[in-house]
Amino acid sequence: MKRILEGIENFQDILCLSELVDLVLLKSGRKKAALVEISYRKEKGIAEKDFRERIRKFEEYLKANKLIINPRINYPIKDSDLTVFSEVAKTRRTLKKIERAERSGDATIRKREVGELMGYPKSAVSAFVSGHSIEKEGIPLTKIERKLLNFRLSKKWQRELGWHRRNIEILKKRAPALYELIARES
Question: Which residues 6+ apart lie within 8 Å of 58 measured at CB?
Answer without folding.
Answer: 11, 14, 15, 38, 69
